[in-house]
Write a structure and sequence with these properties.
This protein is an alpha/beta fold. It has 11 helices and 10 strands. The chain has helices at 40-52, 83-101, 118-125, 141-144, 152-160, 162-171, 177-183, 195-208, 211-226, 229-244, 247-257; strands at residues 6-7, 16-21, 24-29, 59-64, 107-111, 114-116, 128-132, 136-138, 175-176, 188-190. α1 runs parallel beside α2 (83-101) and α5 (152-160) packs across α6 (162-171). The structure holds 3-methylmercaptopropionate-CoA (MMPA-CoA) (1HE). Residues 34-35, 37, 68, 71-76, 90, 93, 114, 116-118, 140-141, 144, 146, 148-150 line the site of 3-methylmercaptopropionate-CoA (MMPA-CoA) (1HE).
Length: 267
């Protein structure tokens, strides 16, 4: 972590803080007094952040200030909403989380403390998840008389299967960080306080990849995975040809063959 952290000049609400370390942008949920509960201002601020990311940024790290990643939807926002407003509200979350998942650059989320409800839906929109041992996961929507509304019905079954999402919602079950790691909610499990450093290390590696490969991983791979196999193989062949035809790929392949490229390392 040699790069110094400096402010990233994107206009954001007080509940969000953006900084950068070289090619990596860091977005901090900064409403710890409300356990980083996500109100409309914060969700729209995330949209502003992901829309305004400078081209020089190659990866993003999201983390939460205080003891928790996020307590999910700000429940005080729901008490007055009617049905039509509820639909629009959920669609707004979809739009913003889509911008994260299918945005310009890969996103690494650092999870600690409560990662619940909409907080878990936000985590699921990231591409890589690093959990600290303090993390725990729940979907308290069932208890609250509401439902997932931030894309969780689509994204979470891909991570842990429909049956586990059903069970989490029906019983109010909480998974520990270790259980979440075993189930696939996180990719890495680290000690308390070590998540941000690990996420920055991973984001640094991601930032070294060819941008076209990162684009293909984020935008093409998940579409192929959901298409019929014949269309998938064809799209894969097209994407592979586009990627390997690029100047960047040619240079990187030559570098390896002439002993300048990185070797695959264990661990
Ligand atoms: C909140 C929220 C919130 C805390 N909306 N204000 N999410 C939930 O059902 C989780 C609700 N929160 C909790 O269960 C607990 O707050 C925590 C386990 C996350 C943390 O407990 P703790 O003891 O550290 O904090 P606290 O004392 O409960 O909360 C501190 C303050 O944050 C308090 O406000 P204060 O003014 O009394 O100080 C809480 O009211 C406030 N707070 N969580 C609003 N979520 C797109 S659909 C997604 C649907 C969902 O996300 S449903 C799940 C909602």
């Amino acid at each position: 972590m040699t790069q110094k952290e400096s402010p990233l000049p994107i206009k954001l609400p007080r509940s969000l803080v953006a900084t950068r370390r070289g090619e990596i942008a860091i977005l901090r949920l900064a409403r710890p007094e409300k356990r980083n509960a996500l109100d409309d201002t914060t969700i729209l601020g995330m949209e502003a952040f992901f829309t305004a990311l400078p081209d020089a940024i190659k990866a993003v790290v999201i983390h939460g200030a205080g003891e928790h990643f996020s307590a999910g939807l700000d429940l005080s926002a729901l008490t007055e909403a009617d049905v039509a407003e509820g639909v629009q509200h959920s669609r707004m979350w979809h739009r913003v989380f889509d911008r994260i998942e299918f945005g310009k650059v890969p996103v690494v989320a650092v999870l600690h403390g409560a990662v619940v409800g909409g907080g878990l839906e936000l985590a699921a929109a990231a591409h890589v998840r690093v959990a600290e041992v303090s993390a725990y996961y729940a979907l308290p929507e069932g208890t609250r008389g509401i439902f997932l509304g931030g894309g969780g019905t689509v994204r979470l079954p891909k991570l842990i299967g429909t049956t586990r999402v059903m069970e989490l919602m029906l019983t109010g079950h909480t998974y520990s960080a270790e259980e979440g790691q075993a189930l696939g909610l996180s990719h890495y499990l680290v000690e308390s306080g070590a998540g941000l450093a690990k996420a920055l290390e991973l984001a640094g590696r991601i930032a070294q990849n060819a941008p076209l490969t990162n684009f293909a991983v984020m935008h093409v791979l998940p579409r192929i995975a959901e298409s019929d196999p014949a269309s998938g193989y064809l799209t894969e062949a097209l994407m592979a040809a586009i990627a390997q035809g690029s100047e960047e790929a040619k240079t990187r392949l030559k570098d390896f063959l002439e002993k300048r490229g990185k070797k695959v390392l264990r661990g």
